[in-house]
Design goal:
249 residues; five-stranded antiparallel beta sheet; disordered N terminus; Alpha-Beta Plaits; alpha+beta; elongated; 7 strands; ribonucleoprotein; Mrpl11p
Length: 249
């Protein structure tokens, strides 16, 4: 007797098929799939070009510091070496395709850089565009920490021209190499916050002293003014009493 084979029931959602017993687990997948289907992109949604532009968008929007470097003829061994060393400083090295990174930069002000955009709607004067000349790598850091940048620049001195930093995005500012060298000598955010707190505490203490001093000074001036006003009256009364005494004599 042949055993009947168990065929799991499948259902369709948004054009994607899945087992009924996995639907509860895969709600997030279906929600994401539904969102992706609604996108209208220049290249196919599952193409590598769309994937890379999306990657660059994520990289730029989720990194406080992005340094751009010329990536010149590194061997595989050198590439692994510097990737490892950069990771030790807290950063990540990513080789970029200039033409696709340019697409992202020109369309970065739009909700979907991969979508259809008219030429006149593009930002063709983005300040980072001039940095994309020749083989390029992006070195990203999650936090804007000057000490990490200082360690990186010191590390890349050994790479000489093979990994040459040519500019950076720090928060919402674009820095050239000179300004980047100034940035690396700044204190960290935590250090700046502690310094600011100390200054504010000192100023608040001085303010309290001045307030107390001004209060006592005002009281002194008020009492002195009252005393000065009372003195002529007392002198006048004494003078009047003396005159009466003289007349009585």
């Amino acid at each position: 007797m042949l055993r009947s084979r168990f065929i799991p029931k499948r259902v369709s959602r948004n054009g994607f098929f899945a087992l009924t017993d996995t639907i509860g687990v895969s709600n997030r997948f279906y929600a994401l799939a539904s969102e992706q289907v609604s996108r209208k992109t220049v290249k196919p949604l599952d193409s590598r070009k769309t994937f890379l532009v999306d990657t660059y968008k994520h990289l730029m929007e989720n990194s406080s510091v992005v340094l751009f470097a010329h990536y010149n003829n590194l061997s595989k061994t050198e590439d692994h070496h510097f990737r490892f060393k950069i990771k030790q400083t807290g950063g990540t090295l990513t080789k970029v395709r200039n033409n696709l990174f340019e697409v992202y930069l020109k369309n970065s002000h739009l909700p979907d850089p991969c979508g259809f955009v008219k030429r006149k709607e593009q930002n063709r004067s983005h300040p980072l565009l001039p940095l994309l000349k020749g083989p390029t790598a992006a070195i990203t850091y999650e936090d804007a920490n000057p000490q990490q940048v200082a360690k990186l620049l010191k590390l890349l001195q050994s790479a000489q021209d093979k990994l040459l930093v040519i500019g950076a995005k720090v928060e919402n500012q674009v820095l050239n190499v000179e300004k980047l060298n100034d940035f690396k000598s700044l204190p960290t955010k935590l250090e700046m916050q502690s310094q600011l707190a100390a200054v504010l505490q000192m100023l608040s203490g001085l303010g309290l002293v001045r307030t107390l001093e001004s209060g006592s000074n005002a009281l002194y001036l008020t009492l002195k003014s009252h005393h000065d006003n009372q003195k002529p009256k007392e002198d006048a009364e004494n003078s009047s009493a003396d005159d009466k005494s003289v007349e009585s004599k």
